[in-house]
Amino acid sequence: xxxxxxxxxxxxxxxxxxxxxxxxxxxxxxxxxxxxxxxxxxxxxxxxxxxxxxxxxxxxxxxxxxxxxxxxxxxxxxxxxxxxxxxxxxxxxxxxxxxxxxxxxxxxxxxxxxxxxxxxxxxxxxxxxxxxxxxxxxxxxxxxxxxxxxxxxxxxxxx
Length: 159
Hints:
The protein is built from six helices and five strands, in the order βαβαβαβαβαα. It has 159 residues and is of the alpha/beta class.
């Protein structure tokens, strides 16, 4: 698996601490920066990771900022990215199973590295469940592509 990894200055320490985790797992990682604790704008890194995932250059993306929230907002502006900020492994499992999320964002100031590794285990190991969830993910893609009437699609909220 190929993962693109990025952080802003607030997530730099966690990003660096996670590199040995990826090495232990045998995951190919491309670090897109930042490369110090000097202040940078998180959207710059989010778009690098997001574009790599959306283009297929990477299978997954991992972004770290202070809270994880800004990175999620920015990454989700890249068509084809489904990013979520999660705080525990169960949420990481659900983001993959039900939303086919391809980018996870972490709060470097709020999550210990050990917990981040557990979150990443779930994110990397969980497959998309498909089935009833596939139509919902298709609707998200439709929104990205400018669909005006999602109700025309076969979809039942009771499923």
